Amino acid sequence: MTLDRADFPSDFVWGTATAAYQVEGATNEGGRGPSIWDDFARHPGAIADGSSGDIADDHYHRFVEDVGIMADLGVTAYRFSIAWPRIQPQGVGAANPDGISFYRRLAEALLQRGITPFATLYHWDLPLALEDRGGWLNRDTAERFGDYAGFAAAELGDVVTNWITLNEPWCSSFLGYASGEHAPGKRIGSRASHAAHHLLLGHGRAVAAIREARPTANVGVTLNLYSVRPATQSTGDLDAARRIDGLQNRLFLDPILLGRYPADVLHDLGEEEWFAANPSTDAVEIAAPIDFLGINYYSRHVVAAGPTTTTTTTTEASSNPGSESVQFLDTGVPRTQMGWPIHPDGLIDVLELAHDRSPDLPLYITENGAAYEDVVTGGEIVDEERRRYFEQHLAACADALRRGLPLKGYFAWSLIDNFEWAWGYTRRFGLVYVDYETQRRTVKHSGRWFANFL
Ligand code: IFM
Fold it and tell me: Before 414, cis peptide (omega within 30)?
């Protein structure tokens, strides 16, 4: 496979990404309030290795070193997230100056090294005080999110131009409130879709608030989209694909880009009545024009019809409420340590999903990467599988550009190994290895390959 930087335009954005709770640590410093993840991580059995983000990569104290590593890699952008509980420790009220100051120092350090900040406002760390009032099931949280976005843009908009409202609202809704694998760990079946609506409404309000505070801001949202294929052309398998594409992709893409929810998905969920009872102005707010769409791409689902009876039990709740019986097939392609099948060409499918709905909208891959069991040998991490994963997916990006898709940038997930949510520190995604005992960073072979490519 030949891959050349010249396959990409000279202004293509090359970045790496992280998220606050996964890397920052310092959860009790700078006036930060508790988040749902601080709470969730303390529940026995919630995190595979019983860990938490309390220390993580200590990025809060080591960000200057990490920015230096990015500069050495040669990236031109850094996608980080702002911890809402650092800005509003209780989710309401005036902005916390120490929280603002941390992100200002980070953004300034990036700019000094010629790296453009892309700030995500919500990468899953809801202030715990808001969860106590119902979290994303409470419509008021959308309003609070709009306020927070406005503060952040007003305070930091001179050093941050690129804003991403939400990261992967599917995860916040269906892993947070349906399967319970993620904070806040609720299992309320189809009603998890109410959280999705409030997240989307919060997105719309955040777009408006950022534009009011900073009219020249570049504002988008990041969705985790999947390539979804039916196992066969049978009616049952086609219906399975329609359902999973509906829940994972269309439930989010359609209201944001087309101004309406997909009726079939609300029907599958059995939630048409609840959605219809919301103010009709919600649809307009959610579809507020955006400047770009961020897409996190990791894998493809090949699905088939399953038994008609639901398999959901109280101990094992599905993240696909209303469509629990759909089977996710193992087609034999290689998988990453997460168990996610590797399908580089699915990256083009998901770009097309967005492009078909909004042909002029600039697109970014805001995350793409792979977990593998890294072994340190003589101080080196020879992660050939990860290197190949990046190479194959960058080749798919180049292919997408040749097909005329408006892809403007690519962010590797992740800059450094970090707290992988319910998997704790047992899954490593970094281009850079972190020894959690010493916090020493070592660039992996994949990182060196990426730097050479750039
Ligand atoms: O680590 C996560 C990230 O926080 C969101 N997208 C997927 C990554 C890998 O699971």
Answer: yes
CA distance 348 to 354: 10
Q: Could you tell me what percent of the chain has a pLDDT over 90?
A: 97
* pLDDT tens profile 281-321: 999 999 999 999 999 999 999 999 998 655 444 457 999 99
Residue 335 has pLDDT above 60, yes or no: yes
Give the span between the Cα atoms of 174 and 244, in whole angstroms: 12
Work out which ligand 1 atom sits closest to the CA atom of 22: 4
Q: Which two tokens stand for residue 67?
A: 């920015």
Token code pair at residue 170:
């599917």
Note the pLDDT of residue 307.
81
Report, as an integer, the average pLDDT of 37-41: 99
DSSP codes of every residue in 270-317: T-HHHHHTS-THHHHHHT---SEEEEE---EEEEE---SS----SSS-
Cα–Cα distances (Å) from 243 to 14, 119, 174, 202, 238, in that order, read: 34, 32, 14, 25, 9
- Comparing C-alpha atoms, which of 15, 18, 36 is closest to residue 27? 36
Q: Whose CA is closest to atom 1 on ligand 1? A: 420
pLDDT digits (tens, 9 = 90+) for 368-389: 999 999 999 999 999 999 999 9
Q: How are the residues of the chain apportioned to helix, strand and coil, as percentages rounded to the nearest 5?
A: 40, 15, 40
Asked if 295 and 351 touch (Cβ cutoff 8 Å), the reply is yes
Q: What are phi and psi of 29, to 5 degrees?
A: -110, 160
Mean pLDDT, the chain, whole residue set: 97
Mutate to test the pocket of ligand 1, among 21, 122, 372, 420 (most ligand atoms within 8 A of CB): 420
- The set of catalytic residues is 168, 367
Q: In sequence order, what are the residues at sequence separation of 6 or more whose Cβ sits closer than 8 angstroms to the Cβ of residue 369?
A: 298, 386, 389, 390, 412, 413, 414, 429
- Quick check: 429 and 420 in contact, CB under 8 A? yes
SS3 category, 167 = strand
Choose one of 168, 224, 372 to mutate for the ligand 1 pocket test, by most ligand atoms within 8 angstroms of C-beta. Answer: 168
Cβ atoms 340, 306 nearer than 8 A: no
Give the per-residue pLDDT at 309: 52
* Helices 97-112, 140-156: crossing angle, 10 deg rounding: 50
Q: How far does the centroid of ligand 1 lie from the alpha carbon of residue 222, in Å?
A: 12
